[in-house]
Amino acid sequence: MTLDQPNVAAFDPVLADEVRRGLTSQPKRLSSRFFYDDEGSRLFSEIMHLPEYYLTRSEYEILDTNKEQLLSLFAADNRPFNLIELGAGDGLKTKLLLSHFVEQGARFTYVPVDISAAALDGLTADLRQKLPALAVQPQLGDYTEALAQLTHQATEGADAPRQVVLFLGSNIGNFAPADAVAFYAQISQQLQPGDLVLTGFDLQKHPAVIHAAYNDREGLTKAFNLNLLRRLNRDLDADFNLAAFDHYELYDPESGEARSYLISQTKQTVNIRALDMTVPFAYGDFIHTEISRKFTRDGIEQLASQTGFALTQWLTDCRHYFADVVYRK
Ligand code: AVI
User: Fold this and answer.
1) For residue 174, which atom of ligand 1 is closest to its CA?
2) How many angstroms is it from 193 CA to the middle of ligand 1?
3) Mutate to test the pocket of ligand 1, among 257, 290, 324 (most ligand atoms within 8 A of CB)
4) Which residue is closest in CA terms to ligand 1's atom 3?
5) Which of 224, 225, 226, 231 is nearest to 272 (CA)?
6) Ligand 1: residue whose CA is nearest its atom 1
7) Mind listing the pLDDT tens digit for each residue in 250-261?
């Protein structure tokens, strides 16, 4: 290898492969999975506090109002339970449930699962300090791998813990419809009858409310979207000029999809040196970066029935913007 050739092996192969495929496909696309480097995670935490981003506050209200009911369900028949949170992040909303469950003397272990070691370490340290009586068993890794490992270890018998999976914050909205079905089918296969899944779904509502949530006046969502290009500059030695791209958000009430794009504001060529690739952009060319699906009750019931679950609880906030839904295996 000569000195001016990129050392491709040093770059994240999954990122490299997806970027190569995404930027040569028509239309161009990049996966929203790559939003969450340290800066992207920080920006998302700020987005959650924006006045326009109603999702977090709506879900907080639901969990706060229904925490007693949720505990009765999770601990039914006096069984202990494992509370397995997929994509725990900073655990903001879960802490509300955890402190209530600990106060009530519930027999349970909290198992946060996350792909980011930094996020898991931070969350675990914070919980050990704030809720020292809580049993925490962090699991680093991909959701389905971690879930497979956990349920494989599960014991049987009357006092065997019930598995309760949490997937909050409408993270499910970032999956394409077929991927969401495959994901729940996989979770379902790993659970026993009587195990539960609590999911946060953002609901369809006035399109203007949804559009504003992804097009905030402060420009944080724009910064979050553009940060993906900054990441490619750093991780794949690319030279995207962030000022030459704009954020564009579309909400389509027919499909229930909010879609984020990055729009080229000029004719330009971008070099991605780690991939030995140049990407031409015409004025107005776009990269599709995220889908945030909004659901109907019918769609949520259908997802349950297609994947081996029954919908047992439907909890919403006072404006009916968001639903936290319990599926039983
Ligand atoms: C993480 N996820 C549920 C967020 C959403 O609403 O789709 C990510 C986000 N994208 C822009 N703003 C927030």
Assistant:
1) 7
2) 32
3) 290
4) 171
5) 231
6) 171
7) 999 999 999 999
Six-digit token string for 247: 């954020």
Q: Please, are residues 262 and 287 in contact by the beta-carbon 8 Å criterion? A: yes
Each residue's pLDDT tens digit, 102-132: 999 999 999 999 877 888 888 999 999 999 9
**30, amino acid identity:** L
The C-alpha atoms of residue 277 and residue 20 are separated, in whole angstroms, by 8
Cβ of 221 below 6 Å from ligand 1: yes
pTM of the model: 0.93
Please state the φ and ψ torsions of residue 324, each to the nearest 5 degrees: -105, 125
Instruction: Assess whether the C-beta atom of 82 lies below 6 angstroms from ligand 1.
Output: no
Residues 159, 203: Cα–Cα separation, whole Å? 37
At position 149, the amino acid (one-letter code) is Q
For residue 136, which amino acid is it? V
Predicted ipTM?
Answer: 0.99
Rounded Cα gap, residues 115 and 237, in angstroms: 23
Whose structure tokens read 């006046």? 217
Alpha-carbon distances of 77 from 71, 81, 111, rounded to whole Å: 12, 11, 21
